[in-house]
Amino acid sequence: MTVAATNEAPLLEMSGLRKTYGGIEVLKGIDLRVRKGEVIALVGSSGSGKTTLLRCVNLLEQPTSGCIKLEGRVFFHRAGNAEQVRLPSAEINKMRSRVGMVFQQFNLFPHMSVLENVMEGPRTVLREPAESNRARAMSLLAKVGLVEFADRRPDNLSGGQKQRVSIARALNMQPVLMLFDEPTSALDPELIGEVLKTMIDLAREGMTMIVVTHELGFALEVADRVVFLDGGLVAADGPPREVLIRPPTERLRAFVNRFHEMAQLMKPLLG
Fold first, then answer.
1. Quick one: pLDDT at residue 33?
2. N or C terminus: which one in the chain shows less Cβ crowding within 10 Å?
């Protein structure tokens, strides 16, 4: 992937990020920098904090403490029990619109057509005129190979097609950063490839991406860095071949081996 020079300020910066639910600390002080054009694969066992971290990036979950900067501007800041930095709601919404998110379960509006789903964000959040919004939405549907499905409702699409509509919808907000929360986990095996291809194309075009994934092949071949979360902490962060081929910790080695074993078990089932 094409990544900005290392001396440039990061596009996204998280410092000391913590998140507690009912006395249970899920994130225990995350420090993470993401440069423009970088693809980060976020991996770890269930309960390690991956989805929570992703949802904290755009404040779908409010961190308990820590600091988040986007494009050099403070998006969130709270130190311990001190009062958090409060941005006006309009400013938060503006910064949030710069971050696209693709969920596991698509979250499409069932009563809207594919095209209407893709146009909805710019229409309601940005108040963009319909003509320019529609033109870009159709271009994005062509990009994900679904322009001929523009007038269909989501319930007439396969899971892979729904997820590609979700990606087009997020891209239509013209984000600087894309977040993917296990985008293939709800798909049948034969549909995973079409979604991964769309993501690979985005990565090659220079889109900055953080991807929570169990697709270790994708992480190995596409990501610039693999970040391994364990117990709410960053336990490893480095180039994919260093992290996944030569795991630096026993916990990471066990995690990687478990997926290799699963792949071997699945081979006879998949033919």
1. 97
2. C
Measured distance CA(75)–CA(79) in Å, rounded: 14
Q: What is the C-alpha to C-alpha distance for residues 76 and 136, in angstroms, rounded to an integer?
A: 31
Report pTM. 0.89
Sign of CA dihedral 41, 142, 154, 97: positive
Task: Give the number of domains in the chain.
Answer: 1
DSSP string, 237-252: EE-HIIIIIS-SSHHH
> Distance between CA atoms of 11 and 35, rounded to whole angstroms?
5
Please count the other Cβ atoms lying within 10 Å of the Cβ belonging to residue 49: 23
How far apart (Å, rounded) are the C-alpha atoms in residues 271 and 267?
6
Q: Which two tokens stand for residue 92?
A: 């938060």
Q: Say if 25 falls within a structural domain.
A: no
- Establish if 112 belongs to a structural domain: yes
First to last CA, the chain: 33
State the pLDDT confidence band at 262, using cuts at 50, 70 and 90.
very low
Residue 217: its pLDDT value, please? 85
Amino acid at 56: C
pLDDT for 259 equals 65
